[in-house]
Amino acid sequence: DWAIYWHHREEFQQADDLLNRSTKLRRKLAKEHPSIPSYRYRLAIVYQNVGFALMMKGQFEKARNSFREALDMLEVLARDYPDVPNYRASLGNTGNMFAYTLSNSAGDDAAQAAYESARQHYLELLRLEPDNAVRLSELASLLNNLSQLHYRKEDYQQTVTVAREAITHQNKARQADMSNTQFISQLSSHYSMLARGLNRLTDRTSALEAYDQAVTLMKQLLEQDPTRGHYRASLGGTYHNMSRIAAEMEDYPRAEALVREAIAQSLLANQKLPDDVKVLTNLRRHYAMLTHVLRNTDRSEEVSEVYSRAIEFAEQATNRTNSDDDRKM
Question: Which residue from 14, 145, 227, 231 has the highest number of Cβ atoms inside 10 Å of its Cβ?
């Protein structure tokens, strides 16, 4: 746990040292006491944590190997001890991350098979614990990843089908714990994924309705914690996507209102996260979208000033990226 804590703080050397020490200790205990399943389980979790750390650093092939070691142990534990829910839950969670690494290193077909396998583990677990909010949310997260995979494969009907399944499970989790901000955030992401798929199927009205659901949830998050810049950034990005759809429908008044809201939210995010490249890039995109809307509403006199703002934020994003690259060298 301390290793993951240091990893989140980007203290990678300290995190790696702790993981190496933990791996050696857990491997020794599991070898010396093969009849104690909890020792094997803790070793599997260490392999999972190693895989997670490698995945976050973009070392997908190494992460995949570590997740595979964890899965091999967890599959045996889940088979031999079917009444211990944590074994199957960890099997599903590790399988989700394993599938993600496959999608980045071994191809979409292999990743899809891994996602489907992990989904089955969660479904079996939920037959025993149908109201377990954490498991429902974990399954929804897995399904959202699978929906993204279908989107990348340009199978938009499956994108929509799986996203709706994710929403169903996440709503059940949220009903069990209405104040859980993680559940709210994840549900918002699922609605956004649904909207993306619907838009590709040219069902733009339904896509806007799905994005509206995502916006409502993001606003709930901001009511609970208005200081979170990342919430503002996500809200700005969603308004931008809605504006783009409205423009495609040639509803330029609505597109303008939405992109101006996107700008307002992203400017607030920029105050909290002044060096965030994604926020700066989004602001560039928002002003470029506003330029497009103005040109299509015969307001060319406003275009120059708005477009200059797009260039300004593009330059800031480039400078920040170059600065980050210099620090890594």
Answer: 231
- Element at 217 (helix H, strand E): helix 204-224
Q: How far is the C-alpha of 215 from the C-alpha of 199, rounded, in Å? A: 16
pLDDT tens-digit series, residues 189-245: 999 999 999 999 999 999 999 999 999 999 999 999 998 999 999 999 999 999 999
Q: Indicate if the alpha-carbon torsion angle 62, 66, 69, 70 is positive or negative.
A: negative
Angle between helix axes 37-56 and 12-32 (nearest 10 degrees) is 160
Tell me the pLDDT tens digit for each residue of 280-296.
999 999 999 999 999 99
The DSSP symbol for 51 reads H
Encoded amino acid at 231, one letter: Y
Tokens representing 172 are: 């059940």
| C-alpha span between 92 and 71 (Å, rounded) | 9
- Looking at residue 82, the DSSP 8-state letter turns out to be T
3-class DSSP state of 202: coil
**Which residue's structure tokens are 């593009």?**
314
- With a CB cutoff of 8 Å and minimum separation 6, the contacts of 37 are 77, 80, 81, 84
